[in-house]
Specification:
Number of domains: 1
Bound molecules: S-adenosylmethionine
CATH class: Alpha Beta
Distance between the termini: 36 Å
Radius of gyration: 19 Å
Number of helices: 8
Largest sheet: 7 strands, mixed
Strand content: 15-25%
Helix content: 25-40%
């Protein structure tokens, strides 16, 4: 879900516990789709949050290794700071870098995995196919590339939110995010590059009190730099979204997991 700023914690300790429990459960379900990854050398592309890295590290265990590749320096530093306290099984390194140009030799990893990277990919830099090919290029032949991301097969408030954030990002920085689309778009992407492609759609997993967190967000400052007309349109859409969240709660999209094996060459 989009990243935001809050004035303070809008949740009571009990609510926060329930919220975190649901996020961990979501993450566990996604990571379970990877199957047995014990002892593997794994690249996690696009993200540095302990939520995912701890779960992965636990599954990889002491005989494997985990490298996270994240383009946003602030997130890298935040992830490193938070992981300092964590009790990790596999050693974890977080590296600043671009999924379009992973800074590794070929054959470095047994598995490249991403969760939520594709919809946030800036495709001005290159196509999603190129990003996937770049990730595959650092995986050994016969190793796997696996991605998990939201899809629009089930209506959800989060889809409207993500689309609004995508348009806002475009207005503010010119970035053209790949966005969330139908499952077939992602399956085709993997089939063009990988062998033995398998995929699975998981139904939406609710996260308790997410609506409360989203509604407590501070108004984003970015749009203030936009021309008045654009700013007004975005602000009306933001208010309509908030109204929908009050009515329906913050409903979540389905996710699609796709994996395939890397072909020689
Ligand atoms: C939706 S978030 C993924 C969240 C992830 N599940 C986690 O670990 O928290 C997508 C992440 O991909 C990162 N990202 C976007 N484009 C990237 C790129 N070209 N290379 C590396 N990371 C990228 C973003 O900065 C963001 O942290």
């Amino acid at each position: 879900m989009p990243r935001r700023l809050y004035k303070g914690d809008p949740l009571t300790p009990g609510e926060r516990e329930a919220y975190e429990e649901d996020l961990i459960a979501f993450c566990d379900c996604e990571l379970d789709l990877l199957g047995d990854v014990e002892g593997l050398s794994v690249l996690y592309a696009g993200g540095s949050s302990p939520l995912w890295l701890e779960g992965l590290s636990q599954r990889i265990g002491r005989t494997g290794a985990l490298v996270a590749l994240e383009s946003d320096i602030e997130r890298v530093e935040e992830g490193r700071e938070l992981l300092r306290e964590a009790d990790l099984d596999a050693p974890v390194r977080i590296i600043t870098g671009d999924a379009f140009r992973p800074p590794f030799e070929g054959d470095t990893f047994d598995l490249a995995y991403s969760s939520g990277l594709l919809h946030e990919l800036d495709v001005r830099e290159g196509s999603a196919e190129e990003a996937l090919a770049a990730l595959a290029s650092v995986v050994r032949t016969g190793g796997r590339v696996a991605t998990s991301d939201f899809v629009n097969s089930v209506p959800a408030v989060q889809l409207e939110d993500e689309e609004l954030q995508r348009e806002m990002t475009r207005e503010l920085s010119g970035a053209k995010l790949y966005g969330i689309g139908p499952p077939e778009r992602l399956v085709t992407l993997h089939e063009a590059l990988l062998a033995e492609v398998q995929w699975r759609i998981s139904p939406p997993r609710p996260v308790r009190y997410l609506d409360k967190i989203v509604l407590a967000e501070e108004e984003p400052e970015g749009p203030r730099s936009l021309p008045v007309g654009k700013r007004r349109r975005l602000s009306e859409r933001l208010e309509a979204l908030r109204e929908r969240i009050r009515r329906e709660g913050y409903t979540r999209p389905a996710t699609l997991y796709v994996e395939g094996s890397v072909i020689e060459g």
